[in-house]
Design a protein that fits this description.
By secondary structure, the protein is of the alpha/beta class. It has two domains: 223 residues, Rossmann fold, CATH 3.40.50; 88 residues, UDP-galactose 4-epimerase, domain 1 (Alpha-Beta Complex). 40% of the residues lie in helices and 17% in strands. The protein contains eleven helices and 16 strands. A seven-stranded parallel sheet has the order 5-4-3-6-7-8-14, with helices on both faces. The protein has a three-stranded mixed sheet with strand order 10-11-16, with helices on one face. A two-stranded antiparallel sheet has the order 1-2. Helix 1 crosses helix 8, helix 3 packs parallel to helix 5 and helix 5 runs parallel beside helix 6. The protein is globular, with a radius of gyration of 20 Å. The termini are far apart.
Length: 344
């Protein structure tokens, strides 16, 4: 119930993580749990069994003011990690009101509640490289101009700005991590990284047509081919577990601020395909096709982080290289196939 537990000569901190069942939440909960925190976690639905034991769960809508207030009062957190979000830019066009409520107004309300009830707490807001839009800057850092091109990006920019406003006006120790693309075996299949890992694993196992569908409502694998959009898009891809470590490091720093979180490298979707299919002994060019219907008109085509500030002030470094990240995701899909075969 938010009481501090003594561990040795120290005092254990209490953390609250919203949106805790996503990939970032899974890695962050494990990190906090292993670090001895008392952990409270929020999700809209009951958490998966694999992570349920690592936290005291609060199940409900984070946009509900009464629920959010009760959660703050009950947990009395020393650190709050707001990961709750409508997480895909493409979905934000179909749900603009929900996107605004979760991605913009929820962080605003969190700031307000902390000022009123827990002003000494530290807040981490999961910001996004989508706030930058599709500019032509070689690298994006904390001072890059913001020109978001989707309701998702606009809502994330509102949250990003309001965090800075509360930091300046009320002295709230509130920080934004401007997160570039980060992937893991926990990524949903709606993301291109997981589609590629899924496609490589399934095609290597002889799957000709998948039951799983893409945003067109068509099979992700059709006639033995993985169907994707623009292979020339370049992204700064990192590992979600590394980014969870960055979130924690940011809140431990004595001075609150905003930090770009990325690897400083960029790789194309084509490179992702090449490595994924190579991991299963296949040539991607024989198994991947594109469909113009999967091209995104307003999606950013290039991202590359400049994380110099984060590295300089916290010492954070990514641990997992791009090729190892791709292999990790493919091998996880192969393991999932083995489990399914054993259950059949």
């Amino acid at each position: 119930m938010g009481m501090m537990k003594r561990v040795g000569n120290g005092v254990t901190k209490t953390a609250l993580v919203t949106g805790a069942t996503g990939q970032d939440g899974r890695y962050l909960l494990a990190l906090l749990h292993d670090s001895g925190y008392v952990v409270h976690a929020q999700s809209r639905r009951a958490p998966p069994a694999g992570i349920a034991g690592e936290a005291r769960w609060h199940v409900g809508d984070p946009a509900d003011t009464a629920f959010l207030t009760a959660m703050i009062l009950e947990s009395r957190p020393d650190e709050v990690y707001n990961l709750a979000a409508i997480s895909r830019p493409t979905l934000s066009w179909a749900a603009p009101r929900e996107t605004a409520e979760i991605n913009a107004f929820l962080p605003h309300q969190l700031c307000d509640l902390l000022v009123k009830h827990r002003p000494e707490a530290r807040l981490f807001q999961a910001s996004s490289s989508d706030i930058f839009g599709d500019g032509f800057v070689r690298e994006q850092d904390e001072n890059t101009p913001c020109e978001p091109t989707s309701p998702y990006g606009v809502a994330k920019l509102y949250a990003h700005r309001i965090i800075g406003t509360y930091r300046a006006r009320f002295g709230l120790h509130a920080c934004c991590g401007i997160l570039f693309n980060h992937e893991s075996p926990y990524r949903p299949l709606t993301f291109v990284s997981q589609k590629i890992a899924f496609g490589a694993a399934r095609i290597s196992a002889g799957v000709r047509e998948s039951r799983e569908l893409d945003e067109r409502g068509q099979p992700i694998i059709a006639n033995g081919k993985l169907v994707l959009g623009d292979l020339g898009v370049r992204r700064d891809f990192g590992f979600a577990g590394d980014y969870a470590e960055a979130m924690h490091a940011i809140l431990q720093h004595s001075v609150a601020g905003d930090y770009v979180v990325g690897t400083g490298e960029e790789h194309s979707i084509q490179e992702f395909c090449d490595l994924a299919f190579r991991a299963v002994g296949l040539d991607w060019t024989e198994h991947v096709i594109t469909d113009p219907k999967l091209l995104r008109k307003t999606d950013s085509h290039y991202t590359r982080a400049n994380p110099a500030k984060l590295r300089g002030e916290t010492g954070w470094q990514p641990r997992v290289a791009f090729d190892k990240l791709v292999e990790m995701m493919v091998y996880a899909q192969l393991e999932a196939l083995d489990r399914q075969a054993k259950l059949a």
